[in-house]
Design brief:
The complex is a heterodimer of chains A (317) and B (288). Chain A has 317 residues and is mainly α. Chain A is built from 14 helices and 2 strands, in the order αααααβααααβααααα. Chain B has a domain at 21-220. Classes of the chains: A mainly alpha (317), B mainly alpha (288). Chain A binds chain B through residues 49, 55, 57, 101-102, 105-110, 112-114, 116-118, 120-121, 124-125, 127-128, 236, 240, 243-244, 247, 277, 279-280, 282-283, 285-287, 289-290, 293-294, 297, and chain B through 30, 36, 38, 85, 88-89, 92, 94-97, 99-101, 103-105, 107-108, 110-112, 114-115, 223-224, 227, 230-231, 234, 262, 264-268, 271-272, 274-275, 278-279, 281-282, 287-288.
């Protein structure tokens, strides 16, 4: 049953991504690509915090790094852009290993804010050095020439199908022995450790996967904008989005962050078209996150699920 | 050469004193409430903006009263936020919930400030004192940095006395060591928490006013100050006011010296210093 479900998801995702890439006009594709990127980012933060139990306030570091490595790599070599798109997350994943070994010495809240410092260091470095773009940023010119194609259709397809693939991979992972070990570790590190789970290795694995996912999100997003700057790529708002979306939707569930993302985009588009400023919008999102944390700290989706269960007696996932 | 060095060190130490003060506030809430208060940076900017507002309305107001006003305003805000939101969040078993709540509050406060005061950088002009300076042995020292240093030392000494010598301080220490037993002994836990949060916010406001006099301030400054405060706490150790002061001075000196040689690096070298010490501690196993 479950294997069929995964195959259906993959096939449906592929078809929908392909159809969407051909049907929608560029402006819509740009928005939808952003939605897909936010979905990927939220799922990665959720994996790290909700399933792995590590709250990080510095995931924008990997997002920005993903964008920058893609731009720097594609601009200065003849290796095609789309190859770099695949290679960038791998490089960021490799970089995350030594970083994780250092920051894991910080526990809980210290780890969270320590990662934030890492993101600030990266922002300052990319802002400071001209060969990394400096304060002016970088325009995407693969192989030194201007972009000859409009990338939004291909990018949307990759982002949308990539997101579905990530969901399927996470479903399989959480069913596996390693996934169960991860959940056990989140609920009780000591008990899991006593059962033979290598807590440190698991933490590092989740940390690296989340870094790779955020990097992929950064690469995809900045191909569509064709321009990257440190002030934008490493900004707090990326973290705030992935965090609020996961918290509001429901940490530690796969459906929660999706619901959170849909709410986030709908509220934003509604408020923008009603003429509210960006600041007002963030106030609303902040208030929503605080209210959810205080009244339903597990998020909205577990609330809906429980309500459904009480009404019908059937378990939904 | 020696004169320049001494002048740089003096500037670094005065800035570091302020960093120590903002770190001490963060350490106070973390040590006693067990909450990493991520809205601490916003208290710093709000304190500065209250001062800007006061000076705009009443240009003749003496700096001491400006400081008192900013302290009172932020202590009120900090205490109210603790009573209304953070206290509730602390009821959850997961210590990450209150931290995330303060993060949400920080986002709200920052954007409220942007909406009401605008996103521009603002300076705080308190008249004569900013320009006044005095000469010792051919070296010039500003009067403002000196006031800053005196205030920082006063905050540290005052905090130390408050914690060690008063009845309130005894309750705070008891709560920090054994919260359950302190509660059994009749310490009114929530009242103490609100007072501690108010005190920390007030300290942040004092530092904010003085930071705004040195440089300028925008609603987005809070984030960098929060990170500096956090670095002070990690380097200086929890519950050690002397450690916080020393760590603040180290970071302040690093910032002043590095900006002399590399003027547009911002807080890069401060963060790098922190991270380098972290790596050393991680390797030597002093941190776990």
């Amino acid at each position: 049953m479950d294997r069929h479900m995964n195959l259906i998801l993959l096939a449906g995702g592929f078809a929908a991504a392909l159809a969407g890439a051909f049907v929608f006009e560029p402006g819509m594709l740009f928005l939808l690509t952003e939605v897909m990127v936010v979905l990927i980012l939220a799922q990665m933060w959720n994996l790290l915090a909700g399933f792995g139990g590590q709250v990080s306030l510095g995931q924008q570091a990997f997002f920005g790094l993903g964008g920058y490595l893609l731009f720097l790599g594609a601009n200065s070599t003849q290796i095609p852009l789309w190859v770099w798109l695949g290679v960038t997350p791998l490089i960021v994943g490799l970089l995350a290993v030594p970083l994780g070994l250092v920051v894991f010495h910080l526990k809980n809240a210290y780890f969270a804010v320590g990662m934030w410092v890492v993101a600030e260091i990266l922002a300052a470095v990319f802002m400071r050095f001209d060969f990394l773009g400096g304060s002016a940023g970088i325009v995407l010119r693969p192989g030194g020439a201007s972009m000859t194609m409009n990338p939004e259709r291909l990018v949307f397809f990759i982002a949308a199908f990539g997101f579905v693939a990530i969901i399927v991979a996470l479903r399989l992972f959480l069913k596996s022995t390693t996934g169960l070990a991860l959940l056990g570790m989140r609920d009780s590190p000591d008990a899991a450790s006593a059962c033979g789970v290598d807590v440190r290795r698991m933490h590092l694995m989740v940390f690296v996967i989340a870094a790779m996912g955020c990097a992929a999100g950064g690469s995809l997003y900045y191909i569509t904008t064709l321009y990257i700057s440190a002030a934008d790529a490493f900004q707090m708002n990326w973290l705030i989005v992935m965090m609020f979306v996961s918290i509001i939707g429901g940490l530690g569930t796969l459906t929660g962050p999706i619901i959170g993302t849909l709410l986030f985009i709908m509220i934003r588009e509604a408020m923008t078209s009603a003429g509210f400023s960006g600041g007002t919008y963030w106030i609303v999102m902040g208030a929503l996150a605080v209210v959810v944390l205080l009244l339903a700290p597990r998020g909205l989706w577990p609330l809906i699920r429980d309500f459904h269960f009480r009404k019908t007696g059937r378990v939904t996932r | 050469m020696i004169q320049t060095t001494i002048e740089l060190l003096f500037q670094g130490i005065t800035l570091g004193g302020l960093y120590g003060v903002i770190g001490a506030g963060l350490a106070l809430t973390f040590g006693i409430l067990r909450v990493v208060n991520l809205s601490h940076g916003e208290m710093i900017t709000i304190g500065a903006f209250v001062a800007v507002g006061l000076v705009t309305v009443m240009p003749a107001l003496p700096i001491a009263l400006v400081l008192v006003g900013a302290f009172a305003a932020c202590a009120l805000i900090g205490g109210l936020l603790q009573a209304a939101f953070v206290e509730r969040a602390m009821a959850f078993r997961d210590p990450m919930v209150p931290m995330l709540v303060t993060f949400g509050i920080a986002v709200i406060l920052r954007n409220l400030l942007v909406e009401t005061a605008g996103a521009d950088l603002r300076g705080l002009d308190v008249g004569g004192i900013a320009q006044r300076s005095f000469q010792i042995g051919g070296m010039s020292f500003g009067a403002l940095p000196l006031v800053t240093l005196v205030l920082a030392v006063a905050v540290f000494v005052g905090l130390s006395l408050l914690i060690r010598r008063t009845a309130f301080g005894r309750e705070v220490r008891a709560l920090s060591d054994r919260p359950e037993i302190a509660a059994l002994m009749g310490v009114r836990v929530k009242h103490v928490y609100v007072k501690v949060a108010a005190l920390a916010a007030g300290f942040a406001a004092l530092a904010g006013v003085l930071l705004a006099m040195r440089a300028s301030v925008s609603p987005y400054s809070g984030v960098s100050y929060l990170l500096v405060a956090f670095e002070v706490v990690v380097l200086g150790g929890l519950g050690s006011t002397r450690g916080a002061f020393a760590a603040g001075v180290l970071l302040g000196v690093v910032q002043i010296v590095s900006s002399r040689f590399d003027s547009n690096a911002g807080l890069l070298y401060v963060h790098l210093t922190f991270f380098a010490i972290l790596i050393v501690r991680a390797i030597s196993g002093r941190l776990s």
